[in-house]
Amino acid sequence: MQSLNSKKQVTVIGAGISGLTTAVLLQEQYNVTIVSRELPGELKDGYTSPWAGANWRSHAKLDDIRQQDGFEYWDEYLPLEWNDPWFKDLCPEYRHLTKDELPTDVEFGIKYKTVTINPPKHLSYLLDRFYALGGTIKRITLSHIQEAIFDNTDIVINCSGLGSKTLGGVQDQDVYPASGQTVLVQLPIGHVNWTCTRSAVSITKIFNSVKQQDNEELPGKGERINYVIPRDNGEVVLGGTYDLHNYSTTPDAKIADAIIARCLATRPDILPKGETKLKIIRHGVGLRPVRKNGVRIEAEWILSESTGKKILLCHNYGHGGSGWQSSYGASMHVIQTLKQSLSEGQVNTYAKI
């Protein structure tokens, strides 16, 4: 029997933020190979992570527990049902906004110190880090989980996101997309040194009434949510939409115009003084990998069809619109789950997939 301390061979499926973060952390202890159809540096319809805005704002419940100003605005406010988010004691300078600080037609808002991330840059950093640690990449389009099991594989980590709906051996029908349309604009570096989110729905729906375990914590079709998220190179992401079960990745010109208009109505200071028009770099639509029953981080033992070898399969998908903010914590949870499963040793039942 292989020692728990020996270098086990791990295959990680997917090179998005969940897959790369998990692979980097695992490579420090194991020999890891990433198998993926896409890699950082590419902008493709099925590759969600590069399209993200990527600011930090936890959607965890109250019991689950370089900085810039983060603002959150709500058009509707139900004060008797409001609870401050759990991170009010974590983020510096958390407070409620005064009435004269609120944009037009906004009833309530909060402000706190937070961080934003440049997704393409961070994905490339993770890939470089993975290579530096000795990791390997295989460019593969998988049709079945068994194709990720090589002769020396001991462990497979499934970070296939929306692909988990169709990937053979997984085919999780609780997975579906929530499309998000964005407009990427170029502004002077440092001009937008804050991030904001504005929702037309009540804060009660977001924080209290929504079943977080269903991972539908943001508005669905027909309800507006807008955000402004800056990057360190002067690019600013303007969003957006949250359209459940929509697989289209084609930007809609009318929606783009509405996104820009609402973002400017909320924060006119997006435009530098003297400027009347934003410089648009590109329009995009990303597909958030939502899962009806929440994020799936769990392990199961399967048998390799080619060798009959016992393989540990760990899942890490279904993060919806929170993949970037939860990536490190989710990856650490995967490693904890993996180690616990290895330490428990023999399992009497196997999943035949």
From TrEMBL:
Residues 10-334 form the FAD dependent oxidoreductase domain. Transmembrane segments: none annotated. Its cofactor is FAD. GO terms for biological process: D-amino acid catabolic process. GO terms for cellular component: cytoplasm. SUPFAM superfamilies: FAD-linked reductases, C-terminal domain (SSF54373), Nucleotide-binding domain (SSF51971). FAD binds at residues 48-49. InterPro entries: DAO, FAD-dep_OxRdtase. It holds the Pfam family DAO. GO terms for molecular function: D-amino-acid oxidase activity; FAD binding. D-dopa binds at residues 227, 288, 321. Keywords: FAD, Flavoprotein, Oxidoreductase. The keyword Flavoprotein applies. Belongs to the DAMOX/DASOX family. This is Nucleotide-binding domain-containing protein.
